[in-house]
Give the backbone structure.
Amino acid sequence: MRNVITYVIAFLFILTLNFLLPRMLPGDPLMAIYGNEALIAMTPELKAHLVERFALDQPLWQQFGAYLLALVQGDLGHSYYYNSPVSSIVLGRLPWTLLLVGTALIISTLSGIVLGIESGWRRGSRRDKSLLTSLMAVSGFPDFFLGILLLIGFSVTWKIFPLSGAITPYSGLSGAALVLDVLHHLFLPATALTLSYIGASYLLTRNTMVTVLKNPYILMAKAKGLPDRVVRYQHAGRNALLPVITQTGIQLGRMVTGALFVEIVFAYPGLGYLTYEALLARDYPVLQGVLLIVAVSVLIANFLVDLSYSKLDPRIRYAH
Amino acid sequence: MLKLEALEVSYGEKKILNGIDLELKDGESLAVIGESGAGKTTLALSLMRLVDGSVKGKILFNGLDLLSLPEEAINELRGNRIAWAPQNSNNTLNPVHTILNQVAESITEHKLKNRREAGKQASILLSSFGIPVNRFSAYPHQLSGGEQQRVLLAIASANQPELLILDEPISSLDAPARAEVIELLKHTNQDCSFIVTTHDISTAAKLADKVAILYAGRIVELGLSGEVLSRPRHPYTRGLIRCYPDMTTGKDLQGIKGVMDRSVNGCSFHPRCTQAIEICRKEIPPLRLIQGRHIACHRGGIIPLLSTKNLSKRFDSLLAVDAVKITIEGGETLALVGESGSGKTTLAKLIMGLIEPTEGEIYLEDSLVSNRGKDFYRQVQMIFQNPGESLSHRLSVLELVRESLDIQEIGARDERDRLVRQVLREVELPDSEAFLNEYPHHLSAGEMQRVTIARALVLEPRLLIADEPVAFLDSSLQAKILKLLLKLQEQRGLSLLFITHDIAVARKISDRIAVMKDGKIVEQGPATKIITSPGHAYTRKLSQAALDLSLED
Amino acid sequence: MHINPKQEIRHSKFAMFGIGMLLFLLIIAIFGPLLTPYQPNSQTPFAFESPSFNHWLGTNHVGQDILSQLIYGARTSLLVGFLTALLATILSAIIGTSTALAGGLYDKIVMRIVDAFIVIPAIIVIILVAAYLKPNLLVLILLLALLGWQGGARTIRAQALSLKEMGHISAARSFGASNLYIIFRHILPDLVPILLMGFIYGVRRAVFMEAGLAFLGIADPTTVSWGMMMHEALDFCYLNVWRWWLIPPGVALSLTILSVTGIGHTLEGALDPRLRREANA
């Protein structure tokens, strides 16, 4: 079990890195903090204001203090590329990433677990072997290449799904039509992400099943005369679930970063595409803001998974 | 209600059960005893049709052939009419469900669809098995091992099964709890038939009417518990009982030589059996009814090695041995206990043919002993009370031990020397040149006694008569010599007629005890029985007179 | 626990495929300069050419030969993969065994840090650092290695802890053996299968991350890599060029990762006795 201190250390590390990177580089820190775009719009007054606000003429630790203070106030900085506060840009893009990651996470985890349970239950059967081979093969593809293949197939060649974006621009759709439009755009990126992560939860569930099935309580459940389905899900599956849940936490980090790549392929306007745009434009405030938000959300998600894990496993719940 | 016919279970090439025939009547209980790996659990699970391996033969449960039933029908029976309670080990109960749910689950599956009602019934059951009410919604890991075991038994009893299979059911409980749980089981499941698998003989004796002894996937002995356990007739059963520590006998724990090996031809016990003959190596003995007991043994079970009938010896007016009838079985120790002058040594000398009987016969393996040739003495040997007297002071150790080989004309000269060295090592003496050339008066008392044992053993006799072999030794040497004799018995299957005046020593070494007084055998029987409930006043007197280390005011 | 990784791999088709594939890629990577008719970076005036005898896979938007780029891409991928995994494995072996043996405060502090790094999404840190530092290949390798040893260290520590309790180690201690002796003579040899597996998955991770970073366009632009090729080709995916420009590097990358996965999966199965094939009676 990881505890809170672990997360505090991780959090501090990310903050420090975010703080130090632009400031430790040679050259004008303002340029590193605010990017190219800012310098063009820079007036001497603004420059003086910024230097003061970030305490750039002060020793490093005071700069850090100023940086933290700004963060606490919810100030992630200002993007001169978009000419708006970073926090509002990030918040505007966040729902799309959440939608994409959430959909893919739920589908890939649930189907991975179900397939893993079925596969592990009859290990060595033909169904198990073909499932194993195909899912291993699929998980060998990098997420962005899966996305590219789907894009080329379904959008470029067959034109079944839109090429890019999350909604049809200027269509003025509302209600059910809007929902359908969103789903239409969501389908390919979510499929790419689901396909590239289903393998992990499937493999882990399957391997755990193999261990779980050797436990005497499985024999006990069969000896009670319970139907196959009940033994498989209530008794075996329920126990195989625990490690899968922990891994889902770890997965979450990979999933979010996977979403970054997939979003780029489909020009899906979430945080990943925002990162890409910021990288191209050298819009450092946005880059920093996005990465901070993503890192912290992953930390929080991991932490929540750790907590829920102890809820799921009675042995841990009472160990404290 | 239950009938097994030629049941065979194998995993791949490996046969775990090999032709089991059994029958169980309504309300009857059977204990299946065997060491680990004998196939007990496989037997239990095959009755639930839960073994992975391939199963052949027939299992008839109230006329239903369990092996040919469809899966749904067998699921209908499992946990309902036939229930199984395994030994509690880690994770026998599902760690993520509460114990109440695990009991109730069994009920909802078969009898009551109403969850609340089932929960109520499960609570009643759990309390009756001694689980406190506040533990019902606990998870298995929060219970002690004993409590977990009780939950398992409650699950098995949940639907009042007709057949309850208990697989090592109470090994994890401590002794007082065992007795209580056995009572509970019998009470909760009245009219239920039991099959109990166990390696624990006392459990079997308490729980079951009948016992079946399982060895390497076959039943080697089957009979009423009391009879089988007090008078085992298969060599394996006797070995098993000897291995079992209990409070009543004092005989030191003895093992069975070798280890179980399923791959041997013929009787699978023969490599470990001390009375194996040619046929044992070739053919598998069937389980036959021999004198009221089912035994799978070509020799009909443990053979009587030597017996006397009506054996008497009169010295003038004194009747030193009076119509003695004793039997010494193959591989056992019979202790002959009595005061000096009771006729013990005379009896030994009669058997050895050192003096002629006035009346009566001696049989060696069913054939009457008339004139003893070399052949007899190769099979029966004796060690004498006073080692100093029986060893000639003119002969070296080598010559002393070789003497019997010389007399019997066994082997060439160097073969004999090799045998001498081997037997010396066996009795834990050095086999160095220097020691071989020692003369008796240079030896200690313990060494001398070992030399006498060595020279008796070098002929590989089947019966060794030991007349007060430790009486002249101090107690630490006594212990060593006794241990040596037991070890030799385990290795060679030697039968021992152990003559002693000390019932405490007899208790330590014997399977059976015969008490002798004034030339008569006044009482004989299993050592356990003679020690704990002596029938004759004289035996009690001997027991009281025996050395007692406890300090009294 | 005695495991013969060689034998386990020989029995698995998946792993044999992986090894064959990797060997093939290695040969291509090593002899790449001999095989390619063009310098991967040399531009020609003929952009967007379809495959022809001169350019088997055509040319890209600035007229570079795609096949040459593909072959040089194998060099980058494998170099980054193997070197990163090697460094990370060495680091995790040192940290894992030393914390297991030393214990105490050192173990506590180091493991805290390790745990913290495990929960941090590495790729994000790398994107951030790469965006500022614009690392060349060597720096990228160091960076990937620095962020890639923590999980391995945990596994190795756990394994070393259980090894430490084993009889032969206690015996060595009772003869007065030093920690160093025990690490090198007893613990490391027993850790070989786990290290091997850590290495294999390290390769996979590094290949994947390098490609991802290049795909994002933040790798060193002078190094030819599959990720970069896909990055460039994606902008033109509405043209037909994806057939010979976008797909080949993607397939090459996928095959590399797939073959490494195959080896890793087989090793993992071999390492976990519970997953072994023998049916226990």
